[in-house]
Amino acid sequence: MVTHLYLGVIILAVFATTVANADIKVVCAKDSVKITWRISAELVPHAARLFLGSCMPSRLNVLPTGEGEALFNYHFADCKFKKLMKGKRLLYQNELTYRPQPKSKPAAFVYPIECVYKRPEKWIPTFLNPGMGFSEGRGGLVFHMALLNEQLTGVAKTNIIPLGSFMPIWAAVEQKSHQPLLLLMEECVAATTPELQPGSQVYPIISNKGCLLESMRGNSLFLPRYHSSAIVLYLQSFKFGLGEEVYIHCKLVAWDPDVLHETKKACHHVKETGRWELLDDPLKSSLCSCCDSTCTSRPKRGVDWESHSFSHNSVLGPLIIVDPLDSVVHNIPQESVV
Prior knowledge:
The protein is mainly beta. It is 9% helix and 41% strand. The protein has three helices and 21 strands.
């Protein structure tokens, strides 16, 4: 036991030294700060243990060398910044830390952050929303896709996802002058590249015309809709591309809400019943029975409406899925990341 603990201390010390030698660049903006923290390849899998105050990195880029760039882009109202007035100066102070152990334990590395300004006559904080998502128009429609925060109240402020936690992926279509439309995720795959090539290695998430495969492997599901033109995929993070940049590629389809069938649907598997369930009308879940085989049938009415439907290929990312249990010492207790 003594030897094991001794080795653990040595490993922690080595990692602390690696972090301490990292390149840190700080840019103070008007109401926010942008920090680039270059870390070694050994620390990339542990990026979920890097903090600016109480905030995880808002983005992690994995470089071709295997090294990483942890980016912190936050408003001073976030991350528990300290605001100090000293004479004619306004100071915002915080700390960059590397915490391989729970927060009750001292950080292995601490780097002070300070932004100094001339004290303004009035200080009114503005809201910074750096989330990951995009909007794009097609055929008079505007498609959106973004990663939401855990509370489902807005766009996520970090692209680092602990393994096993949930990634709420929101997609919507703005209808404008169109009749009410139903948004469906016909197909989604994960890949380690922002563009899909014929030989790209992919991890299927949704296939077979709207069948959520991840609901069978884990606990993923579609959340109840708040509007027909939007859908939330409550996706549990997976091991594919662990520690690398992962992109979610989805084919979004805007469809007639009155015409649901085997090729236009949103189905997830309910473990309690062992059956597939149709998101928009559980009483018609028989439409999902083809999820165990091949969904190909198409009603005549669907054929007539097909020419008036719209599809769009969307990409979300990069996301970085990290294993919080992959600590430098495996028996160190882990804590949930704020």
